[in-house]
């Protein structure tokens, strides 16, 4: 069977889906969304989303709203963004080094725990809610957020599969999509990253 024949229908679902509350030391609410939700600044402000974690290598956003350097002579604008922006850049399928999922977990954990300096060059407040996005919010972001929930709340999500089941329901992913939400190779990478994360937490090297 060809890959295009196995592709599940893409159902309508919310631009943002609330996945979990009270995550990290600032008590953030965690959302998943696709590109439409991630680029809707009014929607992000309405949900107090101040942190954007973009999983997709094939998607970027123009977030500069206070330019230090204006566009000129082929150069793009540079300056402060409308929110704190972190980019992982995974492929939705084969081609990612397995350590990228672990890197994504560490970036997401770091974003949840950062404390902003009280300086004019860091015009951001601590805290705020978090949106993890990819192009559709169905695969890369589902794998990463499931990994985070399993690692951060093992009493509630003792296995990665428990976390994936919760995220699928919260994101309104249908059973006939599950073979690709998330893609199997991303789920495998999340399982491996969970092992590494536990080793790091115990003070052991993450690799043999």
From TrEMBL:
Name of this chain's protein: Tyrosine specific protein phosphatases domain-containing protein
Gene3D superfamilies in alphabetical order: Protein tyrosine phosphatase superfamily
InterPro entries found in the cross-reference section: Prot-tyrosine_phosphatase-like (IPR029021), Tyr_Pase_dom (IPR000387)
Organism: Alloyangia pacifica
Entry-linked SUPFAM superfamilies: (Phosphotyrosine protein) phosphatases II
Taxonomic lineage of the native organism: Bacteria, Pseudomonadati, Pseudomonadota, Alphaproteobacteria, Rhodobacterales
Residue ranges of every copy of the Tyrosine specific protein phosphatases domain listed in the record: 125-171
